Amino acid sequence: MTTKIGILQTGHLDGYLGETYGQYPQMFQNLLASEPFEYRIYKVVDGEFPASPTECDGWIITGSKHGVYEDHDWIKPLEEFCRKLVTGNQPTVGICFGHQILAQAMGAKVGKFEGGWGVGLKEYVLSETGESVHLLAFHQDQVLEQPENTDILMSSDFCQFAGLRYSPTCYSIQPHPEHTIPFITDLIKVRRGKAVPDDVADAALAKPNEPNDQARFGQMMGDVLDGKLRL
Prior knowledge:
Elements: E1 3-8, H1 15-21, H2 24-31, E2 37-42, E3 58-61, H3 75-87, E4 92-95, H4 97-105, E5 110-112, E6 118-126, E7 132-139, E8 141-143, E9 151-155, E10 163-167, E11 170-173, H5 181-191, H6 198-206, H7 214-225
Helix pairs in contact: 3-4
């Protein structure tokens, strides 16, 4: 029986980036290409919501250019759906905005980090093993406090709550395993001097394209969504 994955699309990629790399759901489908999943995309950013958390077997909440604290009419319904996913033990993975909306839905504060932007390849420490991992990041907003009844999966000096576990079947992370080096390079160039300060963008672009743990986290995502792994 094929596992059906619902992707909650929380933003659009416009212009060159969208034309070249596709939309956020496509990036996750590319990351999970080896998994025999069937996908259904819900454009929650446009007000399209699932009827029920059981409509799909597992869920992905994507990144977005929007802030979870912004006054959009789809934010509150998404928070309510997130709470149902957490309390219903539905296999769920939230990434970046998805990480933040889960935390906000469960009562934690999310906002702009006073330390500024986290852009490019970043190092994180896994809480349980102390192991260092590397993933691509692109954010100024952060989860600023730990939601109740969660475990910290990973953190860094820059991002204390970089990964959170809500249940053995529900977790979220701030960085982007679905991003590729070509995409984030172009993203930084497009946003340089507009959203991202020039010096932050230049430092990220100057860093060598070192290996990252994208494939490892993609496999973990697939295993959690397919019910093969309980964190």
